[in-house]
Amino acid sequence: MAAARKLIKAKDGGEVVVHGRNGRIRGVDTYVLGGDSFDKICAVEGLRWSAEMKKMFREFDRENLSAEARRKRIIARYGKQPVSG
Questions:
Q1: Can you give the pTM of this predicted structure?
Q2: Under 8 Å CB-to-CB from 15, ≥6 apart: which residues?
Q3: Which residues are bridge partners to 59 per DSSP?
Q4: Which of 13, 42, 83, 62 is nearest to 73 (CA)?
Q5: φ, ψ for residue 21 (rounded to 5)?
Q6: With left for phi above 0 and alpha for psi between -120 and 50, is residue 64 left, alpha or beta?
Q7: CA angle, 56 then 62 then 67, to 5°
Q8: What is the pLDDT at residue 53?
Q9: Is 84 helix (H, G, I), strand (E, B) or coil?
Q10: Do residues 36 and 11 make contact, with C-beta atoms less than 8 angstroms apart?
Q11: pLDDT tens digits for 30-85?
Q12: Sign of the CA dihedral 3, 70, 56, 46?
């Protein structure tokens, strides 16, 4: 299971479905788009990762953040801030 999780996180993202001995699903781990795929998309789109962005995504991986938690952090950091007043 650990090898499957590591492979999916590094490559294209996806799901690891864990089955019990009785065949019933015990758990599902979903991983967002992996670093390799994101690098390919950036290359096609002509985007470059800044050092700050690379650091942020390494932190996301280290913290094993869900897709939703990653989105919230990115929006909090780079999204438009409401205008007060």
A1: 0.47
A2: 8, 28, 29, 30, 31
A3: none
A4: 62
A5: -60, -25
A6: left
A7: 70
A8: 83
A9: coil
A10: yes
A11: 766 666 667 777 788 888 878 888 888 888 888 888 778 888 888 888 877 666 65
A12: positive
